[in-house]
Design a protein that fits this description.
single chain; about 400 residues; mainly beta; Thrombin, subunit H; 4-stranded antiparallel beta sheet; 3 helices; about 15% helix
């Protein structure tokens, strides 16, 4: 026979369970009543679609036109599936930005032609395509057409480049470099990069001014000039860095700036005579280095007709742009305006353009040391999603 003390304990347990049962029952009752009201008025599920982040997967800048084509990636909240990408065309003269509605191509890399009329795109399927008649921007969506180059496929593209005459297109990946003739619609040149692909130089790709030679980096830190007709190496310089990321070339003064992605990040400036005869393919150009400085982000640009170089530094708890004299490396001025790491530079005369990992672009006047324009790709995307706004 149970003692009164045991009965008292069991009664307390039963009261506790009954209390929680009443509370849960009330919650379910209220939820059911609300569901009936919502259902009777037309049930509609509206998930949170707030945009979380926008960034530039790739950006190609055309100096003479002051225009850029970019692969813009958009990630929404956790309910969104994957990352969406599109090709966006930006005019920094008129301050206009439009989408080329190329999200169906799943773009990865882009290049803008010298006359800014054609955008080359490599999509997730590795096919190289040309979006033509993209300017004037007011009629781009109506007139643009997509063409392909016979047999042109690039897996894991790093950078695309048009030749100065607009007749050729080059691409670089971890292992190879390709050049296609656009007028003949065929592959003109292909070579494998020297060195270990794990130390891959990522963005060093350019043409000589006459469009007859390709300047590309090897995976061992070397930079080669090859004749596109014979395929022979005309010149090869080996820099002091084995983990290059970015580079810019000023051919008039034969200057080359390279940014290293090693530890620590560094920017070095070399003399690089691209038109100096045929030299031994294994000749090193390390002795022609002018200076080296540490930087916070491995990006670089030459500007001012070869008078200054733009680099990045992290100072005063912020991401800064540091302008240095190209010959001596001395600091000339510094700009603050980015809240996230800087991922790219481009120049046009005395104007510098910089973009960061959060999709913001700034325009700087080096002569007056002022920021003249800023653009938020995130805000533009949000405005584009608003049906009450016009998307341009």
């Amino acid at each position: 026979m149970r003692s009164p003390r045991h009965w008292k304990v069991w009664k307390q347990v039963a009261d506790f369970i009954a209390l929680w049962g009443l509370l849960l029952g009330g919650v379910f009752l209220l939820a059911g009543a609300e569901a009936v009201v919502i259902w009777s008025s037309g049930f509609r599920y509206e998930p949170d679609t707030q945009t979380r982040s926008v960034w530039f997967e790739d950006l190609s800048f055309q100096r003479s036109k002051r225009m850029a084509a970019a692969v813009v990636c958009l990630r929404q909240n956790a309910l969104a599936e994957g990352v969406k990408s599109d090709v966006v065309l930006m005019d920094f003269v008129t301050r206009r930005t439009i989408s080329l509605d190329a999200s169906h191509l799943n773009p990865i890399a882009v290049a803008l032609s010298p006359d800014a009329s054609t955008v080359a795109v490599v999509g997730a399927d590795a096919t190289v395509r040309l979006i033509t008649d993209v300017t004037p921007m007011s009629t781009a969506r109506l007139m643009a057409e997509i063409e392909t180059i016979d047999g042109a496929h690039v897996h894991h593209p790093i950078r695309l480049r048009f030749s100065p005459d607009g007749e050729k297109l080059a691409a670089i990946s971890e292992h190879s470099v390709w050049v296609w003739s656009l007028s003949e619609n065929r592959l003109l040149h292909e070579h494998r990069r020297r060195g270990n692909a794990k130390r891959s130089v990522q963005k060093v790709l350019a043409f000589t001014r006459d469009s007859q030679c390709i300047i590309a980096a090897d995976s061992d830190g070397g930079i080669s000039i090859r004749d596109l007709h014979s395929g022979k190496v005309l010149k090869r310089d080996l820099t002091d860095h084995h983990s290059l990321f970015d580079a810019d070339l000023f051919q008039e003064d034969r200057l080359l700036a390279v940014a290293s992605n090693g530890t620590p990040h560094e920017v070095s400036v070399y003399t690089f005579p691209v038109d100096q005869g045929k030299r031994a393919a294994d000749e090193s150009g390390g002795e022609a280095r002018l200076w080296t400085q540490r930087v916070s982000d491995p990006v670089v640009a030459l500007g001012g007709q070869g008078s200054w170089v733009a680099t990045s530094v992290y100072r005063n708890d912020g991401h800064q742009i540091l302008i240095r004299d190209i010959r001596t490396g001395r600091e000339r001025c510094m700009f603050a305006g980015h809240e996230s790491p800087i991922v790219g530079f481009a120049s046009s005369g005395q104007t510098l353009y910089s973009w960061d990992s959060c999709g913001s672009i700034c325009e700087w006047d080096i002569a007056t040391k002022q920021r003249t324009y800023s653009f938020s790709m995130l805000q533009w995307v949000l405005d584009s999603l608003d049906p009450d706004r016009i998307r341009d």
